Amino acid sequence: MPAVKGRRHLGENRRTAQIKGTVRPSSRDKANAAADALGISLSAYLDALIDQDQVDSSGRPAWGSELPGLDSQLELSA
Fold first, then answer.
1. What's the domain count of the chain?
2. Bridge-partner residues for 61, per DSSP?
3. Is 9 domain-assigned?
4. Residue 37 belongs to what domain range?
5. Which of 33, 52, 64, 74 has the fewest CB atoms lying closer than 10 Å?
6. Residue 71: its pLDDT value, please?
7. 55 φ, ψ to 5°?
8. Would residue 78 count as lying in a domain?
9. What confidence score (pLDDT) does residue 36 get?
10. Per-residue pLDDT tens for 31-64?
11. Residue 76's pLDDT is what?
12. How many CB atoms lie within 10 A of CB 29?
């Protein structure tokens, strides 16, 4: 994929894996604006967010309890 003008390339030797997801257009716009402001690609921005994610001993993100309806969904899937 060609580089995005104005964004830094973070190196050739980084191993990468593709992920796919669908988000609200407003979330996409916010993420793209943040990546632009940092001068990095959207992929690098998402990678940095994931790296900074605080998780508990079971791997659940610290902010997970803030998601509406999450506890009931987890109980159904258990």
1. 1
2. 55
3. no
4. 22-53
5. 52
6. 60
7. -125, 155
8. no
9. 96
10. 999 999 999 999 999 999 999 999 999 999 998 8
11. 46
12. 11
**DSSP secondary structure, 57-76, as one string:** TTS-BGGGGGSTTHHHHHHH
Show Cβ contacts of residue 28 under 8 Å, excluding neighbours closer than 6 positions: none
User: Tokens at residue 24, please?
Assistant: 């609200």
For residues 62 and 46, give the distance between their C-alpha atoms in angstroms, rounded to a whole number.
17
pLDDT above 50 (res 9): yes
CA 20 to chain centre: 11
Its pTM stands at 0.67
d(CA 38, CA 6): 10
Phi, psi of 35 (to 5 degrees): -65, -45
61 occurs within a structural domain:
no
Residue 26 in domain: yes
Q: What is the pLDDT of residue 26?
A: 97
> Is 78 a residue whose pLDDT tops 50?
no
User: What sign does the CA torsion over 1, 23, 19, 15 have?
Assistant: positive
